[in-house]
Amino acid sequence: MVTTTARDTRERARGALLGLAVGDALGAPAENMRPSEIRRRWGRIEGFVTESPAGTDDTEYAVFSGLLLARHGSALTVRHVERAWHRWIADLDEGPFRGAGFSERGTLENLRRGLAAPISAQHRHAWSDGLAMRAAPFGVFAAGRPAEAARLVAIDGSVSHEGEGIYGGQAVAAGVAAAMAGASVTSVVAAALSAVPMDSWTARSLRRAVVAARRVQPDPLARERQVRSAVVIGGYPWTDLAPEAVGLAFGAFAAARGDFRTAVLTAVNMGRDADTTAAVAGALAGAMSGVRAIPAEWATAIAPVTGSCLPSMRGYHVLDVADLLTPEEAA
Length: 331
Prior knowledge:
This protein is mostly helical. It has 16 helices and no strands. The radius of gyration is 18 Å and the shape is globular.
């Protein structure tokens, strides 16, 4: 780790959360696609492929968790998280499909039935990447403290996830926390692995992806194939599997040697749960290099969230959340 100033911390925080939103918006059109489908449709994705790029539930849930964390900090409890889910999401009459991903829908169904954490997390998609997608704010808050980031994100995740779903969030939060302190790519990966059981599926997937990423391949397609083949289970129907998505995201980050543009585009062009893998890769690379590493044409396309998934989050910008999570003196 290197010494960072308060200003560095603010710049890295903004890079992490804006990087998440950029990756989410870049990857959204390619979600659930195979690389061959992406190539047939767009060739290789090198930027936004829609006229009005926007984030998905990944960005809106990251805003949700970031606001909750900004309010409670290290005093965050499971009860705080559960109450926030009720007040901002579950108790609002927003129709059956509000809440987006399968893990969120399962959680909302349980909460609306009167179940409480950790029982609210006992549903068929508790292993999903729904916690990993919203984990970056915990790394931002606990900059340089991967263990604290992992502890806090597990508290958040106890309402919605179990097992590998929790581990995926912990790996991302710890990795972002290390990157926020100026760690190298190798140290970021080590921090992520230190936060989860070494014999877990998440750890095995992450290690395989990073080993594949480190093999020198000048051709982007060859690099992506290496990382993807090291992690993805052929024929498995669900693309939001936490060990897979986290492995692909760290693999993209490692293959890019931390370079922001290369990391997110590598994640996007591998397909599968492309919005989440690119969001995580963007958060890691943005935290490591700061907001200035994000191409201006991508950064300026990110607007306040629309509330398409979480109406209560409408109007918040990820940069505002980043500022809330960093020390006041950083301003």
